Amino acid sequence: MTEADTLIRLAHIGRTFYLGDAQVHALRDINLNIQQGEYIAVMGPSGSGKSTLLNVLGLLDRADAGVYHLAGRDVTTLAADEQARVRSEHVGFIFQSFHLVPRLTAAANIELPLMLAGINPDERAQRVKQVLHDYGLDARAEHRPNELSGGQRQRVAIARATVMQPTLLLADEPTGNLDKVTGEEVVALLEALNGQGVTLIVVTHDQSLGARARRQIKMDDGAIVSDTAASVIVGATRDEST
C-alpha cells in the first residue's frame, strides 16, 4: 500500500469523559492507520472504547488529544459545519437500533442524506429508486419503519448509509437486533459493499462476525491491545481465510 492508499491516520488520539468528579479515559493514545478498502472488526468488552473510537472516526465525536487525518486531510479541529460536510461526503453509519425516522417512509429515510447535502430533487429521486432496487426494497418504499421487519429496517438503514456513496462505512453492532439468518443476510450486504471498494469497519461482540474481517483490532480500557495488521507489518504470515 502507498501513502495515497491511506484513508485514516490516527496519531496519539485520546478522549476523556467526566462523570461527576471521575475521569473516564475512553481512548488512550490510539495510533492507527487504515487503508482504503480494508475490512476491519473492532472488538473488546463493554466499555473498552470501541464505540467511542467509531464515533471519533465518523466525526460524531471529537478527540481531546492527538491528530486525525481522513482522506489526506487533517480533520482534528474542523468547525462543526465543515465537520458535517466532510462526514456527509465520506462516511456512512449503520447502527444496531437502525435509527430510522419513525414518521418517514423507507424512501424518505433513504433520501434524508441527499436532502441535507443539497442534491437536486431529480437526482435524489433517481438515487433513491436505484438503492431501493439494489436492496430489494421496491415493494417497501412507502412503508414506515413500524411496518417493516428487522431485516428490512436494517436494509433501509444500509441504503441510507450508502446513498451518498461514502468511502468509509462504520457499522456498530449491525446484527445485534437481528435473528441469525437475517443477520447473515445483512453481513453479506456489508461484505459485498466492501468488495466494491468501500472501507468497512464493524464494531461487534460477535466473535464469528469479527473473525470474518480481514483485520481484527481488539480494545480494552480505551487502548488497542492487539491488531492483526501488526503481523503483516513485520512480515509474518497470516491466515487470509479469516
UniProtKB/TrEMBL annotation:
Entry keyword set: Antibiotic resistance, ATP-binding, Cell membrane, Membrane, Nucleotide-binding, Transmembrane, Transmembrane helix, Transport
Superkingdom, taxonomy of origin: Bacteria
Any one Gene Ontology molecular-function term assigned to this protein's record: transmembrane transporter activity
Family the UniProt entry places it in: Belongs to the ABC transporter superfamily. Macrolide exporter (TC 3.A.1.122) family.
Any GO BP: response to antibiotic
Residue ranges of every copy of the ABC transporter domain listed in the record: 8-242
Listed Pfam families: ABC_tran (PF00005)
Protein's organism: Methylotenera oryzisoli
InterPro entries named among the record's database cross-references: AAA+_ATPase (IPR003593), ABC_transporter-like_ATP-bd (IPR003439), ABC_transporter-like_CS (IPR017871), ABC_transpr_LolD-like (IPR015854), MacB-like_ATP-bd (IPR017911), P-loop_NTPase (IPR027417)
Protein name: Macrolide ABC transporter ATP-binding protein
GO cellular component labels: membrane protein complex; plasma membrane
Keyword rRNA-binding belongs to the record: no
PANTHER family xref list: ABC TRANSPORTER ABCH.1, IMPORT ATP-BINDING PROTEIN
SMART domains: AAA
Gene3D superfamilies: P-loop containing nucleotide triphosphate hydrolases (3.40.50.300)
